Amino acid sequence: MVTNELLSFIQTRLNEGASRQEIESVLMSQGGWSKEDVDEAFDVISEQSQESTEEVPTRSHSSAVGSGDGKQPNNSRGIPTSVLIGGGVVLVGVILFFVLGPVLGMRYNAPNDIEGFLADFIENSQKVESFTYDVSLSIAQEPRGENAEPFDITDPIYESRLEDVEDDIELFDGVKSIRRDLNSHERLSGSFPASLAEIGTFAEVDTDSLDYQRTDGGSGYELAVQFETEEVFDYLKEDIEGEHTDGTITFTQDTSDFFFLSANRVLYKSSFVGGLEGLNMTAISLPARFNGDVSFSGIAGLEEEDTELPDMKNSLSADVDWGDLTVKVDAESLIKDEKIYARVNHFPSIFFFDIEPIRERWISIPEEEISNNMLSSVLPSDTSESEEEYLSESPRMLSNAVSEHNPFVLNGSPQKKELEDGRNAIGYSLGINADSFPEFYEVLMSDIISKLTDEEQIAAEERALEHDLAFFETEEFTELVEYLNEHVDFTIWMDERTGYPIQYSTEVVFVPNPEAIPEDEMFFGPPQASSDTQLRLVSKVTLSDINQRIDIQAPDDPLTFDEAAELMFGSRVIEDRKATIAINIRADIQQVRSEAELYYSDNSLSYEGFCDSDRWQEKSEEISELSSDVSASCYDSADAWAAEATLSGGGVYCADSTGFAGEVEEPTAEDYSCD
User: Fold this and answer.
1) Given this model, what pLDDT does residue 425 score?
2) Distances in Å between the alpha carbon of 601 and those of 535, 604, 610?
């Protein structure tokens, strides 16, 4: 049945520029309307539109407009009639503009300059609060273009320090070899040698330059090593316990052997060069016939107040061709009323396990399991207060930096196209402005650093910013910008009707350069990609249903996490999991006894208030996080206390001020006693 509400919804969405296909999808998949009702509603709206545009009959005038003397007739106030008519037309036009403009959907007044576009983009982006999205990514090897140039840009500041640092790294590797020889000597003889000459090491290090001393009668040693570079010294002193001064690191028999030192760990390399080097490493590691297609789609609803997990729905689909092996993945996740669900439709069982028992079935995922499964990468994580402030301030910081120093240029004039869903869009292809980008980056990063609270992170970011600003002064930075502008096409598409950004498209053509990577950094073996190929990456992010109310429904009758695990692995896994939870509950409840006694001593020899104290609250949270089926309770008085927790397999574990700690059949702690 067609209702006024349905007609109003369709008309409003049409005025906002939505396509019929898009509106039909929302109404039938999320609103519960039938195809017949939706079609009938569109027919009604079409008929109304035709009636409103029919020609209105005009009245004929037998009298002449003019007065016969060639002059315009005047009204009683002496104002020419043509002026009145013209003024009336203008007035009616203004009224129609302001009254009917929003209803009819006025078109976006697209700017032709970079400043106007960026201002509109930032303003309109901040108005986007909810949307559905589709993300596609394709990676393919293809024949190399005729004028293709392999990536060959370095960070000269990094390179200038590399030789000195590599000498210190070689010294460090030699010291590691000497320390292994010292340990071997101690195991064979029962003590460390009196001098390094006794171990006969093969390490390529001048042992006379090392300060070695045996300590504690041969049961220990101290090996002082002087490093020449500040970078290596600073890196090692952070991870090696002891007093280290003036570039000297002192190793002992207790110093960990699990240290790997490389130039990339010690020296900062501009992230702009490092990112492209990482892409180069990936490109040369891919098989020559590699092709991959990945797509994401989902719904992001408006976040309600006091809601940590807003309603949303995500899906992942991937097809990857490794040449001799094709892999397909299809999975979904959903959040409704802060409850999390997942469904796996297709997954390669050859790598992990057979998903057939749970294929295409929704599973309810307890929060405590999120960190242990693949959904942790697509679900919101807890953020600190400073991180939340940073995230909320990010649009403002970016807007300020862009306003002060525009970092982009337009590649040609704005272009138009029709998206797959029928919406018309205006595209702006952006490039990097090498002259203004350094100032933009400095303003943005300084603003970001000012929001950080961790001192070590602040210091690291400040060092990185100082390095990047110095890199921007080099010829290599200019070459880098030219390379990116030539090999990367990044376009933002604005809705021609509303001005909202509705699509981001990126195309990267990357020509790998195996010679740019040292052999000792070829972690995946020799290059696999052919020398006559290049890598093409194409990504597209499309937003729809912007700021529309989105109704996400919880799945019907989902499996519990334990039910899914039992279907996959059998009841033994569930029993082992419950047993582990029970062991942890017992350990936590037993620890409550010591916490209660410490509180008793600090509280004038009284237990009263213990259950409201941080000592119990923290322990209670630990117990509750073990499983969604576990709950903990605490009761106190001046002279006694008792705490209990339910076990996943049934029963209650209890501890009290008498010293009792054990399992009981019924909850009894309310009487300040487990007995």
Assistant:
1) 94
2) 68, 6, 11
